[in-house]
Amino acid sequence: MIIGEKVKDAREFFNIKKYPGNFFDYLIKDNDYINKYGILLFKQDLGDSISGFIGYVDETPVICINNDRTIGHQNFTLAHEIGHYFLHRGESVDDTQRDIDSHSGDEKEKDAHAFASELIYPVEFLKKDFEHALNNNLFNSKKRIELADFVNELCHKYCTSFSFTIHKLLYSIGHPKSNKIIDSVMAEVGGLNNRYNSALYNKHANDINYKTFSPIKLMEDYIMKLSDSKKISYDTGQVILKNNLDLGV
Question: In whole angstroms, what is the distance from residue 33 CA to residue 219 CA?
Fold first, then answer.
């Protein structure tokens, strides 16, 4: 299957042994990540409709993530854009909230969604988590809070949204009462922020993940190298820097 092969390629390229956790932090932990991976990463407020995008400067991918989204949503969006990079290289894409939250859209969006889902929450771990829930009878109607607490643990483990995690836990295995269970769990919890008080679910939290990210110095160095190697012109490099400085990223 091509998606599985591309996910494997991505794991090898980024040296991901199991799953990346917070993928953004995983990538930028190395200050030389731009030279290492050849990818420019940004975070900024992209408004209400766009969750993220991937574009290209010549052949260099530029990925921007909307930091006005919950951390799990940001994480999935980044994996989704990386999916576009490995599956549809060279094509610029703006991804809306709906593109990220659902399996809707054209085949390319569905493929990028499947790529991101497997990259950040691999099926081998999903199966183990499902077995744990099953062995501990967490799908019992009297254990909705216990199921919610388990899903919360998984969200923090994989750096995923609650909605994505519980849907994957149930739908990917084909549980016959998925919709009913999810609805009753959310009703029982009565608000993720109220029960868990976690920055993972609160985009208004004072957390570094909700700050803009602008690797201007790294980008200046990288663009200078592109210019020196004649991959882009000096003038093009200056326009790129100016546009990003003007945007405040």
Answer: 11
CA distance 174 to 22: 27
Closest CA to 164 of 90, 75, 239, 226: 75
Q: What are the residues facing 53 on neighbouring strands?
A: 64, 94
> CA 53 to CA 46: how far, in whole Å?
9
Q: Kindly state the average pLDDT of the residues 187-214.
A: 91
- Give ∠ CA 120-123-125 in degrees, rounded to 5: 80
Nearest-angstrom CA–CA distance, 61 and 81: 10
Model pLDDT for residues 125-162, shown as the tens digit of each residue: 999 999 999 999 999 999 999 999 999 999 999 999 99
Beta strands in 58-201 (DSSP E): 60-66, 93-96
Record the tokens describing residue 77, joined without a space.
């969006």
How many CA atoms, within 13 angstroms, populate the side-chain half-sphere of residue 87?
Answer: 24
The answer to whether 9 and 118 are in contact (CB under 8 A) is no
d(CA 208, CA 213): 9
Residue pLDDT, tens place only, 57-76:
778 888 989 999 999 999 99
Per the listing, tokens 């994480």 go with 75
Give yes or no for residue 237 having a pLDDT over 90.
Answer: no
Give CA 51 to chain center in angstroms: 10
The answer to whether 98 and 14 are in contact (CB under 8 A) is no
| Mean pLDDT of the residues in the chain | 86
Q: pLDDT tens digit string along 84-100? A: 999 998 887 877 767 66
- Looking at residue 213, what DSSP letter applies? B
Asked if 170 and 182 touch (Cβ cutoff 8 Å), the reply is yes
